[in-house]
Specification:
- The protein is an all-alpha fold.
- It is built from four helices and no strands.
- The chain has helices spanning about 5-15, 25-45, 50-55, 60-75.
- The model has no long low-confidence stretch (mean pLDDT about 90).
Length: about 80
């Protein structure tokens, strides 16, 4: 993955991925966010293939980050 793709993905996740109101929404939220991320990456000149080459399925990564956010919210 290119440095540009890594930076884009890290910044995007930090900005956009937050715990959903209910954990049951994680799958749907991950789907929506993955589509948004892919579109914004393309606009920024970062191919989705570059991102998924390193992290695998973008939607699964975002779902994991959402689950982490839910857990962190519970701990607070």
């Amino acid at each position: 993955m290119t440095e540009k793709a890594i930076e884009f993905l890290q910044e995007w996740i930090n900005e956009k991925v937050q715990a959903p109101e209910t954990p049951a929404q994680i799958d749907r939220e991950a789907e929506v966010l993955a589509k948004q991320c892919a579109a914004q990456a393309a606009s920024a000149g970062v191919p989705l293939e570059d991102i998924e080459e390193e992290v695998g399925d973008l939607e699964e990564l975002i779902a994991t980050k959402l689950e982490d956010a839910v857990e962190a919210k519970k701990d607070n």
